[in-house]
Amino acid sequence: MKTWLITGCSTGFGRALAQAVLAHGDQAVITARDVEQIKDLAEAAPGRALALPLDVTDPGQVRAAVTAAQERFGGIDVLVNNAGIGYFAAIEESTDEEIRRIFDINVFGLSDVIRAVLPGMRVRRSGTIVNFSSIGGLRAFPAVGYYAATKFAVEGLTDALRQEVAPLGITTLLVEPGPFRTDWAGRSAHETLPEREIADYAGTAGAQRAAFRADTGKEPGDPHAAARAIITALAADPHPQRLLLGGPAYSMAIEQLESMLAEIRANEALTKSADFDGPAA
Length: 281
Known about the structure:
Strand content: 5-15%
Oligomer: single chain
CATH superfamily: NAD(P)-binding Rossmann-like Domain
Number of helices: 10
Shape: globular
């Protein structure tokens, strides 16, 4: 029986994963900013679930949640950093307040939870850290540039972390979902619309924003199937370092990587000309 600590469990992936973990027979520390929204999850698995309030931007709550998890279950085997928000604005339309808010939650909050959990994992020389990125961590889109920037940051942080903790018996997994029915572009999008929309971006950021909203509730991805896929991935030995979720994510990732590789190869000579011993300009 493993003990999981999962952030952002009120809706979407977090809630689906908490349900799947408990159905699998494991223990779970289920967290959300509003603990009332997750009490039903804990009540469904008495003795194996603990519901705690956790705003990942509050260092005190982060420390308190990790301490409570360790005191209740003896340690954390799997940390899942799922808590996050979107922001639907062109780069120029974005405001300082919203840019800082999305980085505080998606990057700095995630980092704080990792750093709070790592000491216990290091002592036990075991553990897994699962960080939710996105297909937007591999490929950016108009209207969500700052969201993509946070997910690119999560990708880099996780890749470095993987190399640092591997000798200590700790592993990492990057989860990269495509479009899923998590209300990411529904209620969440309406909470993070730009204060002003610039007409010059109507055909790019504006069109993409409208497409996100039009597809709300019709996305092909099933959060419950995604939760089962994550559990299956972590059961493999060794488990993958990254897990794309959903057919669209797979297709978009392959297209992006093949395009990047073709361009890199096309400019090989120019790239190498920048070396001291490269060909003369």
